[in-house]
Amino acid sequence: MNAPPDSIAASDQALLDRIAGRVRSGRKEQGLSRRALSSASGVSERYLAELEAGRGNISVLLLARIAGALDQPIERLIADISEPDASELAVRVGEAPPAQQDAIRRMLDANRPATPIQAGRICLIGLRGAGKSTLGRLAAEALDTPFVELSDEIETHAGLPVAEVMALYGQEGYRQLERQAIARVRDRHDRVILAVAGGIVSEPETYGLLLRHFHSIWLKAAPDDHMNRVLAQGDQRPIKGRPRPMEELNAILERRQTLYAKAEAAVETSGKSVKDAAAEVVQAVQSLTV
What we know:
The protein has 290 residues and is α/β, with parallel strands linked by helices. Helices cover 60% and strands 8% of the residues.
């Protein structure tokens, strides 16, 4: 666990000393004894003692657990804040109120030297069963534009099905992977049609990222159509173990109404053939990307 002093480079020892000081001060700020921090983080008291003495060759995973127990971002334990750098700026932005974070993002977006912020990127939003996958693929084919399912992008990058990604990383971890996937699609494509999960609009940071970098189209459908289309795909989750599935669906639609309405365009998919609905999506794409 410990390394002989003469085997550690000065820069490495400086990092260990910096972490040691911040763990000590963080523990004191939280009013935690070393034993309490050990219990909260699952890291032994002996290891913590070595760490706080600047002798702990600690792994990133253990450090993350300690940061979590101290209710601090891991960057605060690592960043060299004697000279404000990208790491410290990231910490400070992360701690800023949401309104200030949005203002910073807008300022950075305004100064991006690349293509226009939204360019020819389209995002299809809407509840499951609205037709995002089917109509998105058809519209992309008609416009000779790449089509991407965000869930497929996440699975490809993680090397795991979405269900396993959720089980492994949890909801917050999945949302982080989701935001990273959106950024990758944005950076790879100036023209693309992206289909995202219905609940993404309930994540302010993620939805804000979409709205800033993609033109948005809300695919709408009647509640019965949402339900019937999902069930027709063999997905029983909307009704399994739910005594009042339609009431729940209507409640979700009502809660998300104002969020979906932030889209720049909307296409009603109920009461139309797939061909006609796809043609309307094509028209909406063209109107937004002229």
